[in-house]
Amino acid sequence: MDKLASLKSFVRVVEEGSFASAARAIRQSRSQVNRAVAALEDDLGVQLLNRTTRKVSVTPSGQAFYQRAKAILSDLGDAEDSIREHRDHPSGDIRINAPMSFGTLHLGPALVDFARTYPDIRVELSLDDHFIDPVADGFDMTVRISRPTETLALIDHEIVPMRRVLCASPEFIRMHGEPTDIRDLARLPCLHYGNLPSGARWKMTGPDGPVAVQVNGVFCCNNAEVLRDAALAGLGIAELPTFIAGPELQTGRLVSVLCDYAPGPLSLYLLYPPSRQLAARIRLLVEFIQDRFGDQPRWDLVQ
Fold first, then answer.
1. CA 166 – CA 264 distance, rounded (Å)
2. Residues near 275 by Cβ (< 8 Å), separated by ≥ 6?
């Protein structure tokens, strides 16, 4: 039995959902794929797949084996790529997960430029504001704007700090007055981000040290661009990153308030398994993102 070929056949059947689709994907006959998976099951002494006339499903043992087999094949591909580093045209697939707003405003255009520069590297970008495990969810890299993570399972590569500010529209300030004390946020209308564990409790650092205040949340959304638009409409005070609100702050459509108080520090991070750094295509992307976004003044848009 060619165990490597059997692993590839089994992984493809799980991902495609049928022997016929897997056979087409790897350009083999259905009987070849069936024999390869059957030989693998005989060798392991367990049933990996449930087969009926209509569908194929994965057994619990098969699901566990699939995760390990997929990781083995991925590591093998990365090792092969590392040997081919001298090639002028790196190739392969990169699956990236990133937050929605940063992805649409900044990372997406950057990856278009990356794809133009390296046409043999196939890029798949998935945008989602929820934190995910890149290993468990099958991504080569996760882009996150967060605090540092402490996990030995992932490389935590900081690109650049990301500044956030408290801001509101001039119309809002004319109607409600400009806040002069952090406690004013408990009575003034505020717009808060929906995916934070702290909810409407904002934590920041002021002249006297750390402080937290339960804000008067009148509008909640898990997308910062929506919160920016709500602030522009005069709905309330928002806590926004400058990579989203910077242009409006520069033109005066939004103004900073309570400037002596700074929200907790966040940074732009790349998270990826240690094995991925072996792949030339991953190293190229890390260097590209570092060059593209690693300039602090780019994000510190408010003077």
1. 12
2. 74, 75, 78
